[in-house]
Amino acid sequence: MSEYPGDGPMKIGIAFHSTDLAMHPVELAQEAEARGFHSFYIPEHTHIPTSRRTPAPTGTPELGEEYLRSPDPYIALAAAGAVTEKILLGTGIGLPAQHDPITFAKELATLDWMTKGRFIFGIGYGWNHEEMENHGIVVKTRRAHVRESMLAMRELWSKDVASFEGEFVRFEPSWQWPKPIQKPGPRILIGGGAGPKLFSQIAEYGDGWMPIGGAGMAAQLETLRGLFEERGRDSRALHVVPMGVFPSDKKLAYYKECGVTECVLRVPSAGRDEILPILDDFLQYVDRF
């Protein structure tokens, strides 16, 4: 296998907005692995305030019921990891600012350790202002909050004695084990629209980008790769992972041409009888791309 993610074929994964009413995520992870999919991602919402002061991200008047019924993704992925062997298990997306970074660092390191290095931490800054505010997050500073949380967790993951002194996160020199199997920590993919603030954070502490949409991606990736090189990082190691894609040959061919390393296809929040035929249909993309 190539050392660099962009040197080989484009991988195909599955994104599933898991709920307590849909197909069990552990069963779906097993079915995806049995069919040869590369990865399996589920999202995070700690809760959904009933206020709709923040519009639905889908652009629809009502927020889909799946947002209200999301299980804890980290427990679900740990359970999936216990009954799978190869498939990568990730969040698409997780919300690091909504956690205490010390306990969250241990939780994620334990997850990576238990899954033998298969955890992928796809993260975002959050769209639901009410949800953030209930966690004490000031919406205007959420990007800075996420950055500090991630840098602080990376310290705990990578150092025998770690400390951090920031605006949002502080802890004295401390021990914390287990360490993640992946070094210096789980792969970090940051989701969002292209822009200097997002790309700066990806280049600083991320391993890849989860873009929103594909328009202009080739030029945007040139910019991001340039920022990687400016920081002394190898731009060939950049992961590019569109999340929740409704696939077509034309779309996936465009992604591959742009340098996408992993395309994650969306399956509905539905029961087994509806999802498995879709999963079988998606196998054509695994074979072709």
Attribute tags:
single chain, 289 residues, alpha/beta, TIM Barrel, eight-stranded parallel beta sheet, 10 helices, 10 strands, 17% strand
Overview of this structure, please?
With 289 residues, the chain is α/β, with parallel strands linked by helices. It has a single domain, classed as Luciferase-like domain (TIM Barrel). The protein is built from 10 helices and 10 strands. It has an 8-stranded parallel sheet, with helices on one face. Helix 1 packs across helix 3, helix 3 packs parallel to helix 4 and helix 4 crosses helix 6. The longest helix is centred in the middle third of the chain and has 17 residues. The mean pLDDT is 95.
Give the structural class: alpha/beta
What ranges have pLDDT less than 50 throughout 5 or more consecutive residues? none
| Count of runs of 4 or more consecutive helical residues | 10
- What's the CATH topology label? TIM Barrel
- What string, H for helix and E for strand, traces the elements in order? EHEHHEHEHHEEEHEHEHEH
Distance between the termini: 16 Å
**CATH class identity:** Alpha Beta
Strand order of the largest sheet: 9-8-7-4-3-2-1-10
Beta strand count:
10
Rg over C-alpha atoms, rounded to the nearest angstrom: 18 Å
- Residue-averaged pLDDT, rounded? 95
What's the shape? globular
Helix content percent band: 25-40%
Largest sheet: 8 strands, parallel
From the 3D coordinates, which CATH architecture would you assign?
Answer: Alpha-Beta Barrel
Which range does the strand content fall in?
A: 15-25%
Number of domains: 1
